[in-house]
Design brief:
42% helix; mainly alpha; Ser-Thr/Tyr_kinase_cat_dom
Length: 158
């Protein structure tokens, strides 16, 4: 996707569909297309943006004029992997958008649920990868190829 200069802009588990043969496919490209056509802004309520604040990179939540990028998709991918691995949406303890935005301002990341991401080699590797995806400095987040390599390495050691 990113090799074709396409930014999704709304990555989350609800937008990942799995085919009958086990192939994951991204859906809901409407928002990425809309953002190219017009200057759609984040609303003050995630309800108007399908609740996607939980997956949004801090630079999207805190910028006066947010711009979706490959790096903001990487942040959202990290949140999506967190959701898939833990079975919880990011910041599941937060009921209001304001609380999520305050956490973004402070640089507070989701808590590690040790019952699902164990304190062992595999769990620690996955947690490190998630933290790399969530780096505050967008330019230091891993590339899609780097994430794939880490996941292949993770699976091969399983």
């Amino acid at each position: 996707m990113h090799s074709r200069n396409t930014v999704h802009g709304d990555l989350k588990a609800a937008n990942v569909l799995v085919s009958s043969d086990g192939i994951a496919r991204l859906s809901d490209f409407d928002f990425s297309i809309m953002s190219e056509v017009s200057s759609v802004m984040f609303s003050e309520s995630s309800n108007l943006r399908t609740g996607s604040l939980r997956w949004a990179a801090p630079e999207l939540l805190l910028a006066e004029v947010p711009k979706r990028t490959t790096q903001s998709d990487i942040y959202a991918l990290g949140m999506t992997m967190f959701e898939i691995v833990t079975g919880e949406v990011p910041y599941s303890e937060c009921r209001h958008d304001y609380t999520i935005i305050k956490k973004a301002e402070k640089g507070t990341l989701p808590n590690r649920p040790l019952d699902r991401l164990k304190d062992d080699n595999k769990g620690n590797m996955m947690w490190r990868l998630l933290q790399q995806c969530w780096r505050r400095n967008a330019s230091t987040r891993p590339s899609p190829a780097g994430i794939l390599d880490a996941l292949v390495n993770h699976i091969s050691k399983a």
